[in-house]
Design goal:
β4 (about 60) and β5 form a beta hairpin. The protein has a single domain (about 5-250), classed as Alpha-Beta Plaits. It contains five helices and 17 strands. Strands 1, 2, 3, 6, 9, 10, 16 and 17 form an eight-stranded mixed beta sheet that branches. It has a three-stranded antiparallel beta sheet with strand order 12-14-13. The chain has a two-stranded antiparallel ribbon with strand order 4-5. It has helices spanning about 35-50, 50-55, 65-70, 125-140, 185-195, and strands at about 5-15, 15, 30, 60, 60-65, 70-90, 95, 100, 105-125, 155-165, 170, 175-180, 200-210, 215-225, 230, 240, 250. The two termini are about 15 Å apart.
């Protein structure tokens, strides 16, 4: 696609978190600094008032919202990182000598972001879908959150625009990126990144079982870009800037 219709929204929260898929995170739950694809899709669905089947299976008799829009974000600032300590009750189903073991308390540590600010981008080849989402963000059906349900955000700016495809070379920074995209990064930047990158996995979508339970699908490895890199190969990036000017560069999740 040479161009896309898009809506950009600036969102600020107080405490937010985006838990990646990490098998070792049993007692310690890490967070990305940026929202994952499923988080952003859920954000759009909440604004439109859609349920999970409309989000991931079928919407208005056609493709699901997840198949209709592309999503990404740029980190504009974080005031700090905190660790939140939670006490949870664990239920043990096994019994000892015919007697059930009672529930016991366990400690969990959860990383959270303090006062993060983001530029969110939702794009589609269908301008009607983008228009509906833009209107919904101005008057959302449900409260908007990034992270858990109670991690609400305030949307401060909303703007419809068109995105044009970027031709390499160009720069990217402060965004979430699929790990396999690093193959098209300039060699010196790639060597520097690979020495410090933390790789974490996240699902790109969910399937919905008959009982309503969500099942993670299309697990992908992501990296966070905290420094500017120069991209020299085509990764399907877009910009909101007119030809010859600089703007925000986006790579969709």
């Amino acid at each position: 696609m040479a161009a896309l219709f898009a809506v950009k929204a600036r969102a600020a929260g107080l405490f937010n978190s985006f838990k990646p898929k990490a098998p070792e995170d049993v007692r310690y739950h890490r967070t990305f600094d940026l929202p994952t694809r499923t988080t952003l899709l859920g954000f759009a669905a909440a604004a439109l008032g859609l349920n999970e089947r409309e989000l991931y299976i079928k919407w208005n008799g056609g493709p699901s919202l997840a198949e209709t829009i592309e999503v990404t974000s740029i980190l504009e600032g974080i005031a700090g990182h905190i660790r939140d300590y939670w006490t949870i009750k664990k239920i043990v189903e096994r019994s000892v000598k015919g007697k059930k073991k009672p529930p016991f308390s366990a400690m969990q540590v959860r990383e959270q972001l303090f006062k993060p600010c983001y530029l969110l981008c939702f794009a589609s080849s269908d301008d009607n879908t983008v228009g509906k989402l833009c209107d919904a963000l101005k008057d959302p059906r449900y409260p908007l959150s990034l992270g858990r349900d109670d991690e609400l955000v305030r949307v401060t700016e909303i703007e419809q625009c068109s995105l044009r495809k970027l031709i390499p070379p160009f720069t990217l920074s402060n965004t979430l990126l699929l790990m396999n995209f690093l193959r098209v990064v300039e060699e010196e930047d790639r060597k520097c990144l690979l020495q410090s990158l933390i790789r974490l996995k996240s699902a790109r979508r969910f399937s919905i079982r008959e009982d309503g339970a969500r099942v993670e699908e299309d697990m992908q490895e992501y990296v966070q870009l905290t420094k500017q890199i120069r991209v020299v190969g085509d990764i399907g990036a877009y910009t909101d800037a007119p030809e010859g000017k600089e703007g925000n560069n986006f790579v969709f999740l």
